[in-house]
């Protein structure tokens, strides 16, 4: 469920408005580098503000894309980059649908926003994704529960490029400091672990995701 975005991604808004904030983010980047797991800081539009080397290594084999590189905007990468399924395991049900639902919730709470509306326009350009957004998401959320929309604590499969790791799981840990919160940013860390058997709840998620492939486009 990765699609080519039709529009051109706008330049991210700068979050460092003062020398103090710039210095804080430089130090926070150093903190990210001490984490052995992939970690990044995103704003409410999922523009990537900071990312550590473990995150960059995870997506190092991803090909170029004009609007959806993982180090630029992670939401766009998940939704629009054709290489996303090569790294994000069970791509549609475990990554696309939860993040699409999270995006829909963000649009409702933030109102008019240039960055969010740009993503929304690109979703609308693909009939299948637009049908999923308008008609499939409510069905999917009813099937898996509201908790599936939350990022913090979610366990999702990854296909690690290091052959010694291979198929793994990651638990997403979302956290924010006071300063990051004031900037409208959140830190996400992918805590990697060996893959386990898929629980029954995830099996229900896959069945719901299959439903989305046959949802008719809005007429």
Task: List the defining traits of the structure above.
single chain; 219 residues; alpha+beta; disordered C terminus; disordered N terminus; 15% strand; Beta-Lactamase
Q: What is the first-to-last residue Cα distance?
A: 21 Å
What integer value in Å does the Rg equal?
Answer: 17 Å
Please bin the fraction of helical residues.
40-55%
Please work out how many helical segments DSSP would assign. Answer: 8
What is the CATH C-level name? Alpha Beta
The strand order across the widest sheet is 2-1-5-4-3
Shape type: globular
What class, by secondary structure content? alpha+beta
Tell me which CATH architecture applies here.
Answer: 2-Layer Sandwich
Q: Average the pLDDT over all residues and give the rounded result.
A: 84
Order of helices and strands: HEEHHHHHEEHEH
Number of domains: 1
Number of strands: 5
Question: Overview of this structure, please?
Answer:
The protein is an alpha+beta fold and 219 residues long. It has one domain (19-212): Beta-Lactamase (2-Layer Sandwich). It contains eight helices and five strands, in the order αββαααααββαβα. It has a five-stranded antiparallel beta sheet with strand order 2-1-5-4-3. The chain starts with 18 loop residues before the first helix and ends in a 7-residue tail after the last helix. Residues 2-13, 200-212 and 214-219 have low confidence and may be disordered.
Task: Compile the SSE list and pairings.
Blueprint (H helix, E strand, L loop, with lengths): L18 H15 L5 E5 L4 E4 L1 H6 L15 H7 L10 H20 L3 H11 L2 H18 L10 E5 L7 E9 L2 H5 L2 E10 L5 H13 L7
């Amino acid at each position: 469920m990765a699609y080519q975005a039709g529009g051109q991604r706008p330049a991210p808004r700068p979050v460092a408005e003062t020398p103090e904030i710039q210095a804080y983010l430089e130090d926070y980047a150093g903190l990210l580098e001490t984490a052995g797991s992939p970690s990044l800081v995103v704003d409410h539009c999922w523009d990537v503000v900071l990312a550590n080397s473990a995150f960059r290594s995870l997506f190092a084999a991803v090909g170029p894309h004009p609007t959806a590189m993982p180090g630029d905007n992670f939401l766009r990468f998940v939704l629009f980059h054709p290489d996303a399924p090569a790294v994000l395991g069970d791509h549609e049900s475990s990554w696309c649908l939860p993040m699409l639902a999270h995006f829909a919730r963000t649009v409702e709470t933030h109102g008019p926003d240039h960055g969010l509306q740009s993503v929304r326009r690109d979703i609308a350009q693909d009939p299948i994704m637009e049908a999923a957004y308008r008609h499939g998401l409510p069905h999917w959320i009813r099937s898996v529960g509201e908790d599936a929309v939350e990022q913090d604590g979610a366990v999702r499969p990854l296909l690690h490029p290091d052959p010694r790791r291979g198929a793994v799981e990651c638990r997403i840990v979302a956290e924010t400091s006071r300063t990051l919160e004031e900037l409208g940013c959140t830190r996400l860390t992918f805590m990697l672990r060996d893959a386990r058997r898929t629980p029954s709840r995830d099996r229900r998620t896959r069945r719901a995701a299959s439903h989305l492939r046959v949802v008719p486009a809005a007429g």
